[in-house]
């Protein structure tokens, strides 16, 4: 166990239960952390957005970052529960990996995966991340994101070619967004890994807001044989899921 992180966790937990009513001296006394150490912890948490401090009263309360993470947690686990039967349908029909992903901290975050039935299958992990620009799920997320987000992302993006097929040119990527919105799906043309093909389809909720992305992936040799069938069926299944989510 890392003691500094344990102390940080106890501080967050204490403030969460005394939100907006705690001073440094109160926390120090209740948790038995000396004021010098505690001051460093509090300032770090404020800097990272997990806490805020009222400049007039000096009282501490939870910051916006905790709210943001809480909403992601809430969205993630309710979405996983609802989406899993639909993902299972696709895995059972085509035998390939099926992922559910969302955007988090400007990356693709995989929040669920049902593994392929095949002996030769692609690597995948829940909680893993990939760049938005290089994946079919990420390109789809960017295609449906608001303009301010896209402009900010592209301005700060450090493009790296993961394979010879990775799109690292901003204008070419922008052109992809128009195509993806028009056709309603995105394809990974071996842009993350040579020999891997992936198709991604959006999942919408109320107001046609993007809730997540379902992707079917496998070795290019297998996927190319059934790409049309996988694509049509995934669009159909994601449409059913979107309807279930209120779209």
Which ranges are low-confidence, i.e. pLDDT below 50, for 5 or more consecutive residues?
A: none
Strand content: 15-25%
CATH superfamily of the largest domain: GAF domain
Largest sheet: 6 strands, antiparallel
Helix content, binned percent = 40-55%
Number of helices: 8
What's the architecture of the largest domain in CATH terms? 2-Layer Sandwich
Chain oligomer state: single chain
Mean pLDDT value = 89
H and E order: HHHEEHEEEHHHEEEH
CATH class of the largest domain: Alpha Beta
Structural class estimated from helices and strands: alpha+beta
Number of domains: 2
Walk across the major sheet and give the strand order: 5-4-3-8-7-6
Shape: elongated
Radius of gyration: 22 Å
Tell me the span between the first and last alpha carbons: 45 Å
Number of strands: 8
CATH fold node name of the largest domain:
Beta-Lactamase
Structural commentary:
The longest helix is centred in the N-terminal third of the chain and has 31 residues. The chain is elongated, with a radius of gyration of 22 Å. With 247 residues, the protein is α+β, with helices and mostly antiparallel strands. The protein has two domains: 60 residues, Arc Repressor Mutant, subunit A; 177 residues, Beta-Lactamase (2-Layer Sandwich), CATH 3.30.450.40. The protein is 51% helix and 19% strand. The chain contains eight helices and eight strands. The mean pLDDT is 89. Strand 1 and strand 2 form a beta hairpin. A six-stranded antiparallel sheet has the order 5-4-3-8-7-6, with helices on both faces. It has a two-stranded antiparallel ribbon with strand order 1-2. Helix 2 crosses helix 3, helix 4 packs across helix 8 and helix 5 packs across helix 7.
């Amino acid at each position: 166990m890392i003691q500094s992180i344990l102390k940080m966790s106890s501080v967050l937990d204490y403030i969460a239960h005394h939100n907006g009513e705690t001073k440094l001296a109160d926390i120090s006394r209740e948790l038995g952390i000396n004021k010098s150490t505690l001051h460093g912890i509090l300032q770090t948490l404020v800097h990272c957005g997990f806490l805020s401090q009222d400049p007039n009263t000096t009282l501490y309360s939870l910051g916006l970052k905790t709210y943001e993470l809480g909403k992601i947690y809430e969205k993630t686990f309710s979405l996983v529960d609802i989406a899993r039967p639909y993902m299972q349908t696709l895995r059972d029909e085509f035998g390939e990996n099926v992922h559910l992903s969302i955007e988090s901290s400007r990356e693709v975050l995989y929040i669920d995966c049902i593994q392929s039935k095949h002996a030769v299958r692609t690597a995948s992990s829940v909680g893993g991340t990939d760049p938005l620009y290089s994946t079919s799920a990420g390109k789809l997320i960017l295609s449906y994101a608001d303009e301010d987000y896209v402009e900010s992302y592209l301005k700060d993006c450090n493009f790296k070619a993961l394979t010879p097929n990775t799109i690292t040119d901003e204008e070419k990527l922008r052109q992809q967004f128009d195509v993806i919105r028009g056709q309603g799906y995105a394809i990974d043309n071996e842009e993350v890994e040579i020999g891997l093909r992936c198709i991604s389809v959006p999942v919408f909720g109320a107001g046609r807001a993007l809730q997540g992305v379902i992707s079917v992936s496998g070795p290019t040799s297998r996927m190319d044989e059934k790409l049309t069938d996988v694509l049509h069926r995934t669009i159909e299944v994601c449409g059913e899921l979107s309807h279930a989510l209120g779209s």
